Amino acid sequence: MKVETINNTCHRQIEESVHTEILRRIAAAEQEHNVKVLFAVESGSRAWGFASPNSDYDVRFIYMHKEQWYLSVDLEQKRDVIEYPIIDEIDINGWDIRKALQLYWKSNPAFIEWLQSPIVYVDDGFFAKQARALMPEIASTTKSKYHYLHMAQGNFREYLKKDLVPLKKYFYVLRPLLAIKWLETYQQPAPIEFETLRQLVTDNTALDNAISELLARKKVSKEKEYTPAVPEINAFIESELARHAEFSGQYEQRDIKYDALNTLFRDTLNNAVNL
Question: Which of 96, 143, 159, 226 is the S-S candidate for 80 at Cβ 3.0 to 4.6 Å?
Answer without folding.
Answer: 96
